[in-house]
Design brief:
Elements lengths: L3 E6 L3 H16 L3 E2 L8 E6 L4 H20 L3 E6 H6 L2 H5 L5 E3 L7 H9 L5 E3 L22 E4 L1 E2 L10 H5 L3 E2 L2 H13 L4 E5 L12 H9 L6 E5 L8 H9 L6 E3 L7 H7 L5 H9 L9 E8 L6 H14 L3 E6 L17 H24 L5 E6 L10 E5 L4 E5 L11 E9 L4 E5 L1
Parallel strand pairs: 1-2, 1-3, 3-4, 4-5, 5-6, 7-10, 10-11, 12-13, 13-14, 17-19
Antiparallel strand pairs: 8-9, 15-16, 15-18, 16-17, 18-19
Helix pairs in contact: 8-9
The structure holds iron/sulfur cluster.
């Protein structure tokens, strides 16, 4: 009888795709995927360590699994950024862990499992394997049939003081553009019409051509409809890339360009390598095209030393750019980051209040941006296998807006296909519509 596995993934889409890769490796080993840890012989916790909260979730899950392991044989493995960051220390804190596998050692999973099955305790491999980014794409066991994730570059050469990624993911390594084009062709042949190109710093891609060239090459693939990409660094956002974004009909009209703060003093302490003026100049590369796409960003509030004036500068930037959507968090001090040495003496109440103010204003901006679509007919890709809450189907527009499509109980909508939707209403988080 085949062994059963369950993978729990936290964090970014790159970690999601690593989870798909690890699942594919396990299937090749004869393991069978199951829907919960309760049914599994092997549980893989694919972790994130970008913020303290993510780490807490991992440790509470490890606590729960320790009790399960007292009841029955259960192999527990840890992968992802927390595994790479904390290595052996994890065994001390959670002795129920059988193995730790690093972010740059994915293909060592079968070997590590064999060592545990052979009776070795506390097996660990967090080596930096130079070919990790050349993972065979056909092995990945993809979770979505609506959109395929394609990692094009791993690691990051920037050194933002609050960020652990350069430590946990290493320096930038790009895949050859030919491999990426071949992978996307294979995905289209399997029925995918949308891909998302991934990297911690996707727009510093250097796999034999520029990122902009890569987008044009991928867009030449027959049958592919939308190309998305994430995450970009403003200093690698070029005029060439901006032109491609607004002129290539297959590149989805959506740009996520994290700014983090509207204060030059804070950006300097974050080592973001740009000023607000330089950031706005880069956005200016979009020109008229700005009106055709949705713009998103990340904000960190409460960074050490952030004054009222600094926060006001962030609110002024939000007002000036009027992002369609943004993701905002309170600064989370991370072990192993340079920002940890900065005096973090802002009262938590002040930090939470700043986050509340920023998110409240963003909600208004997002709502206004969604309202502008009422009465229009758009293309949207069906993302749900069936009706979600309120009997509607979930779909996503080209500029990354959620749409709840009312289609009546009897009608089945084609997962992964684009449909025409007439927008009948809007909310702060989604649009509402009917099939056109
Ligand atoms: S660009 Fe900065 S925030 Fe982004 S992954 Fe690299 S170091 Fe982290």
């Amino acid at each position: 009888m085949s062994q059963k596995f369950y993978i729990e993934t936290w964090g970014c889409q790159m970690n999601d795709h690593d989870g798909e890769r690890l699942a594919g490796l396990l299937e090749k080993q004869g393991y069978e995927a199951v829907g919960s840890s309760a049914e599994a012989d092997l549980v893989l916790l694919n972790t994130c360590s970008i913020r303290e909260k993510a780490v807490h979730k991992v440790h509470s899950e490890l606590g729960r699994l320790r009790k399960e392991k007292e009841q029955r044989p259960l192999m527990i493995g840890l992968t992802g950024c927390l595994a790479q960051q904390e290595e052996e220390a994890l065994f001390k804190r959670a002795p129920q862990i059988d193995f730790v596998l690093g972010t740059m050692a994915l293909q060592q999973l079968p070997k590590v499992i064999e060592e545990v099955q052979a009776g070795r305790k506390r097996v660990i491999d967090t080596g930096e394997y130079p070919d990790n980014h050349l993972f065979p794409p056909e092995v990945a066991r993809r979770r979505s049939t609506a959109k395929a994730l394609v990692t094009i570059i791993e690691g990051c050469n920037h050194a933002c003081t609050y960020c652990i990624v350069p430590t946990t993911r290493g320096v930038e390594r790009s895949r050859p553009w030919q491999d990426i084009v071949a992978e996307v062709k294979g995905l289209v042949a399997r029925g995918y019409k949308e891909v998302e190109l991934l990297g911690q710093n996707v727009n510093s891609f250097a796999g034999g051509c520029t990122f902009s060239d890569l987008l044009w090459r991928v867009s030449e693939i027959e049958g592919l409809e939308w190309i998305r990409f994430t995450t970009s660094h403003p200093m690698n956002f070029t005029e060439e890339l901006a032109r491609t974004l607004v002129t290539n009909p297959k590149v989805a009209p959506f740009l996520h360009l994290p700014v983090q703060s509207g204060s030059n003093a804070v950006l300097k302490r974050m080592l973001r390598e740009y000023t607000v003026e330089q950031y706005l100049e880069r956005l200016g590369f979009l020109g008229e095209g700005r009106s055709k796409l949705a713009l998103s960003t990340d904000f960190i509030v409460g960074f050490p030393g952030e004054t009222d004036a600094d926060f006001q500068a962030t609110m002024d930037l939000l007002e000036a750019v009027k992002y369609d959507i943004s993701f905002s968090f309170i600064y989370s001090p991370r072990p192993g980051t340079a920002a940890l040495r900065l005096r973090d003496d802002l009262p938590p109440k002040v930090k939470s209040e700043r986050l509340r103010i920023l998110q409240a204003r963003q909600m208004e901006l997002t709502r206004a941006s969604n309202d502008a679509f009422i009465g229009r007919t758009l293309q949207a890709r069906i993302e749900s296998e069936g009706p979600i809450e309120n009997g509607a189907w979930l779909a996503r527009t080209a500029d990354w807006r959620n749409v709840h499509i009312a289609s009546g109980p009897a009608r089945l909508l084609p997962l992964g296909e684009r449909v025409s939707v007439t927008i009948t209403g809007a909310g702060p988080h989604q649009l509402f519509g009917e099939l056109a």
